[in-house]
């Protein structure tokens, strides 16, 4: 049985309450989803929390989901993940606001923001610095494409756009990213 057939079977069985089948669904998407969440949230613990919340929501939503294709399934999964990221950011913003009000210290807040950002060798640092300059949509498209390794169809479904729009956004994001990177990096990495 190929992986696509196994996924169809697992999703269908999990939708009927089969926990072992849901474990197979979890195993199929765990790494892909975690890398995306970590890239979006920049904090391992928060990414793990949102990963758990996402899979809980997937478990609850599967009985209503109708499997038509693998791309649509991953679009469904990443749509849930995006909602959970948004909710997590709102919670985080509220907590930070409360901390600032309680501590009356913005310096402490900015130190907390940077302690979770990992340090990387120079090339990775250049790339992350350039990514930070992009708009949220461009960053998200690139992270879905390269960190989560989604196809353009899966990206389109996750971002609720057309496949063509996902390709155009990807192309524009790459072009914009190149403007923030040194020429030697672009020539070596993105050609």
Overview of this protein structure:
There is one protein chain. It is built from 10 helices and no strands. It has helices at residues 3-15, 19-41, 44-61, 70-103, 106-115, 122-133, 136-147, 152-159, 163-179, 183-189. The longest helix is centred in the middle third of the chain and has 34 residues, at 70-103.
- The percent of residues in helical segments reads over 70%
SSE order, one letter for each helix or strand: HHHHHHHHHH
Whole-angstrom Rg: 19 Å
Question: Please, what is the average pLDDT?
Answer: 80
Family: Belongs to the sigma-70 factor family. ECF subfamily.
Organism: Candidatus Lloydbacteria bacterium RIFCSPLOWO2_01_FULL_50_20
Protein name: RNA polymerase sigma-70 region 2 domain-containing protein
GO molecular function: DNA binding; sigma factor activity
Please name the defining characteristics of this protein.
single chain; 191 residues; mainly alpha; Rna Polymerase Sigma Factor, Chain: A; Arc Repressor Mutant, subunit A; 2 domains; 10 helices; 81% helix; globular
What is shown here, in short?
This protein has 191 residues and is mainly α. It is built from ten helices and no strands. It has helices at 3-15, 19-41, 44-61, 70-103, 106-115, 122-133, 136-147, 152-159, 163-179, 183-189.
How would you summarize the topology of this molecule?
Elements: H1 3-15, H2 19-41, H3 44-61, H4 70-103, H5 106-115, H6 122-133, H7 136-147, H8 152-159, H9 163-179, H10 183-189
């Amino acid at each position: 049985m190929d992986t696509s057939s196994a996924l169809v079977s697992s999703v269908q069985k999990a939708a009927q309450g089969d926990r072992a089948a849901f474990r197979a669904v979890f195993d199929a998407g765990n790494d892909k989803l975690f890398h995306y969440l970590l890239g979006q949230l920049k904090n391992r613990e928060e990414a793990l929390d949102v990963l758990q919340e996402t899979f809980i929501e997937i478990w609850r939503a599967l009985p209503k989901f109708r499997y038509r294709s693998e791309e649509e399934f991953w679009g469904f999964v990443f749509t849930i993940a995006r909602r959970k990221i948004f909710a997590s950011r709102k919670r985080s913003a509220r907590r930070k606001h409360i901390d600032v009000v309680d501590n009356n210290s913005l310096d402490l807040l900015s130190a907390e923001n940077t302690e979770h950002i990992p340090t990387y060798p120079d090339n990775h640092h250049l790339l992350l610095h350039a990514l930070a300059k992009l708009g949220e949509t461009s960053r998200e498209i690139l992270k879905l494409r390269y960190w989560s390794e989604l196809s353009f169809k899966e990206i389109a479904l996750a971002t609720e756009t057309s496949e063509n729009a996902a390709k155009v956004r990807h192309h524009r994001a790459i072009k914009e990213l190149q403007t923030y990177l040194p020429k030697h990096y672009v020539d070596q990495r993105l050609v």
